[in-house]
Amino acid sequence: MSSLLCCSTAMCVAIFLLQLRSFGVSLSHPYRIIHLPGQPNVEFNHFSGYVNVDDKNNKALFFYFVEAQQDSVSKPLVLWLNGGPGCSSIGVGAFSENGPFRPKGEGLVRNQFSWNTEANMLYLESPIGVGFSYSTDTSSYGGVNDKITARDNLIFLQNWFVQFPQYRNRSLFIVGESYAGHYVPQLAELMLQFNKKEKLFNLKGIALGNPVLEFSADFNSRAEFFWSHGLISDLTYKMFTSVCNYSRYVREYYNGAVSPVCSSVMSQVSTETSRFVDKYDVTLDVCISSVFSQTKILNPKQVTETIDVCVEDETVNYLNRKDVQSALHARLVGVQRWTPCSNVLDYDLHDLEIPTITVVGKLVKAGIPVLVYSGDQDSVIPLTGSRTLVHQLAKELRMNTTVPYRVWFQKQQVGGWTQVYGNILSFATVRGASHEAPFSQPERSLVLFKSFLEGRPLPEEF
C-alpha cells in the first residue's frame, strides 16, 4: 500500500501539491489563467500577464505562456515573435496560427496542430505599444527601432525567468516570422553576448518563417515570383526589374517621395496582379482576415486600402471582450481597442534596410542551428529570395551541403522541399503555405517544427 493511501486527506493534498511544485507547476502562480471564456477543458496550464522592462518609463510587455500538453518538464521552451513591425504574437501567432485555441463564435475550439504538443510556447507582444503591451509614457512609442526592441526583449526574458525559474536552464528556441527576421537574430545575438558575462540563456536554435533578412534580395524577388506565377506580363516584369524594382519603390515610399516612374510601374503591377488576389497567398481567395495585416508594412501600396474581410474577425472580437481581458490579466492602456497591429507604435522603418542575414551568419559560426522556412505561395517575402540568401551565406561560410535539395513529406503528401548545409544551416519550403505558414498549412508546419526542435532532417519518406 502506498504512503499516499494511508495518510489523512489534508496530508494527501499537501503531498500532492508538493509533487506538483516539484514538476514546476504552481496552482497559485499569479500569472496562471484559471479559465478563458468559452475555453474547452485542457490538460495543460497556461499563463499570461505583464513583465516590466523599464521601471523609469513604466514599460510593460504582455505575454501568453502555454505549457506543453504532455510532459512539459522535459519539453523545450520556445519564444514566438510575430513581425510587422508592430503586430501581435498573441492575436496573430497564438490565436490564429500555432496556439492551442482558435476563437469560434462565443468561445474557443482546440487547435489539433498546436505547437504546444511539442514545446512550452511563450508568445510575446513586442515591441512596446503592440497589443496589450504598453507604456504610461507615450513618448516610448516614438522612434522605436531594432536595437530598442532587442534590448527590451532581452530584459523581458531575464525578468520572465524570475517569475518562472524552472525554465531558466531549459533548452530555448526562438521562432518568428516576417519582420521577426530582424527581431529574432538580433535578440539571439544579444543572448550570446549576455552569456559571456552570465550563463542564463540555453539557446539551442532559431527558426525564421518568410523572414525579412536582406532588403534588396527579399523585396526584389517579388517580380520574379509574380511573373513565374502568371500574375504579371513579360513587359511589366521587364519594367519591374529594370525601370523601378520593388526595393526602390519601398525606399521612396517611406521617404515620402515616390518618383513618377516608380508610381507608373507600380500602378501597372497593381492593375495586373489585381486587388482580387491576396499577395500573401496567391492561391487564397480574396476573403481574408486581419491575420494577414502584419505584412502591410512590407506591402506599403496597400497600407491605405481597406482589407476585404468576408467573415467576422473572431480573434479581434474575442480579445476585445472585457471578460476575456480579465481572464488574461490584461488591460488596455491609452487605446480604446486591442488591434492585431499597433496604431500607436512609430517604428523606425529605415531599419528595414539593415541586413540581418549577417547576424544569422554570426549565429551559425557560434554554433547556433538556424532554419529559414518559406510558405511557397507568399509573394510578399518569396521563397526565391530567402533560398538565395541562405545559399549565399553557406557559400560565404564555406559550408558543404549535408542534405541535398529534396522533397520532404507530411504523411503521404509532399510537405515541401529542403536543403541543409553543415548540419546547422537549413532551408525549407512549406508546400501550399502562405506568409503565415502555420495558419494556412498547420499540419505541415507542425511536422517542420517538430523536426527543427529535434535537430533532425525533415522526413524523406512516408
Describe the fold and architecture:
With 462 residues, the chain is of the alpha/beta class. Among the domains are: 29 residues, no CATH class; 275 residues, Alpha/Beta hydrolase fold, catalytic domain (Rossmann fold). The strands form three sheets. Strands 1, 2, 3, 6, 7, 9, 10, 12, 13, 14 and 15 form an eleven-stranded mixed beta sheet that branches. A two-stranded antiparallel ribbon has the order 4-5. Strands 8-11 form a two-stranded parallel ribbon. It starts with 8 loop residues before the first helix and ends in an 8-residue tail after the last helix. It is found in: Secreted.
Number of DSSP strand runs: 15
Class by SSE composition: alpha/beta
* CATH architecture identity of the domain at 46-215 and 350-454: 3-Layer(aba) Sandwich
- Low-pLDDT parts are 1-23, 288-292, 302-312
Give the CATH level 1 class of the domain at 46-215 and 350-454.
Alpha Beta
CATH superfamily annotation of the domain at 46-215 and 350-454: Alpha/Beta hydrolase fold, catalytic domain
Q: Counting H and I runs of at least 4 residues, what is the number of helices?
A: 14
Mean pLDDT: 89
